[in-house]
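Question: Now follow the chain.
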Amino acid sequence: MKKETGIIRLIKATGYSLAGLKAAWTSEAAFRQEMIVAIALIPAAIFLGQSGTEKALLASSPLIILVVELLNSGLEAVVDRTGTDVHPLAKQAKDMGSAAVFVSIIITVMVWTLILI
């Protein structure tokens, strides 16, 4: 099978990305909540940041949460796909994904606190 290149590949990749965002929005309450927070924080970041660097840090930190949540949701889907039995490694993988989301939230709180104080 021939691999797509150029604009066709870009169009298809964009479609896959939008499908992933739609899947996260429809199936993950945490993603919806984090998206709503990001939608509120990003304009506030532009308003509250004093420099371009501050604005970029404030605006990008909630996006980091969304990225990590998407990866965590993908990880959970793969783990769930492999079986319904409780396995210590499956639990460990899911717990680590959750911990990654938690760390990204800590990063966002830290960035906002340090810049705004």
Remarks:
- Residues 29-116 form a domain with the Helix Hairpins fold (CATH 1.10.287.3610).
